[in-house]
Amino acid sequence: MSVTELAERFDVTDETIRRDLAKLANGGQLVRTHGGAVLSESAQVDAPFAVRQGANSDAKRAIAHAAAELVRPGDVVAIDASTTALELAIRLPPAPATNPITVISNGVGLIQRLADRPGLRLISTGGELDRTGACFVGSIAEATLSQFACSHALLSCRALDPRRGAGEAGPSHAAIKRLMLSISEQSHLLADSSKLQEKAVCFFAPLDRFTTVVVDDGLDEGRRGELERSTARLLIAPRPSAAPAATDPSGA
Fold this sequence. Notes:
Blueprint: H1 3-10, H2 14-26, E1 30-33, E2 36-39, H3 41-44, H4 49-53, H5 57-68, E3 76-79, H6 83-89, E4 101-105, H7 108-114, E5 120-124, E6 128-130, E7 135-137, H8 139-145, E8 150-155, E9 159-161, E10 165-168, H9 171-182, E11 184-190, E12 202-205, E13 212-216, H10 221-230, E14 234-237
Parallel strand pairs: 3-4, 3-8, 4-5, 8-11, 11-13, 13-14
Antiparallel strand pairs: 1-2, 6-7, 9-10, 10-12
C-alpha cells in the first residue's frame, strides 16, 4: 500500500504513516518501497508449522489417507513441507528394503518423523532454513531437487482458487513447489476445503496442471462444481471415519 492510501484510511498525516512503516520495517514485518510498503515474505506465512499442524486435522488426515494410496513401492516421490503432506508421508504404504519408496522433501518435520521408518529412502533438499515454515528453501534446495526425476509430486498449498490455481505465501515457497511439479511424471494437490477461503500472494500452478486434486468432503455443491470444471480429476476424501489414524511401521 502507498503512504497516501494509508494516511487517508487512518486519517493521519503522511509523516505519521512513514514513522510507523519504518518501525514495522525494522521489525521485519514489511519491506519499504518507493512511496509505500509491502509485506515481507516471512510476515505472509500465516502461522508457525506447529500451529498449522493442529488446524483442520480431520480433513488433512482424510486427504492424506486417500493420497497415500496413489504411491507404490519403488516410486520416487517429491513431498513438500506442508502439514497435510506430513500426514500423507506417515501413511505411505510399506515397502521392502529391496524396493523402497524414495522420498525427497524440503520439510524438516517430515525428515525427522520418517528417519527411522523402514522401507523408505529419505533425501533432504537442504538449503536455507525457513524457521516459521520448518522447511528448506532457496537456491541450494532448488539445485538438489533439479537433479531428480520423480514418479509423483505430492503438494499442498496456502490457498486454492478454482480460477487461478494453487497459491503460496511467498515466492520462495512457490518456487520449490513449481520445481517439484516440473521434475515429476504425475502431480497431486492435497488441499482441505478451508484453503478455498484463504488468500495467496503468488500462484505456482493452475489446477489443470495436477493429475489429481484431493480435497475433503467439506465442500458445498457450488465449490465442488467449480473444482470439477477446473481439474483433470477431483478426488473427494470422506471425513473422518473412513480416514483411520496412521500406523507408523517403525513403531514410533
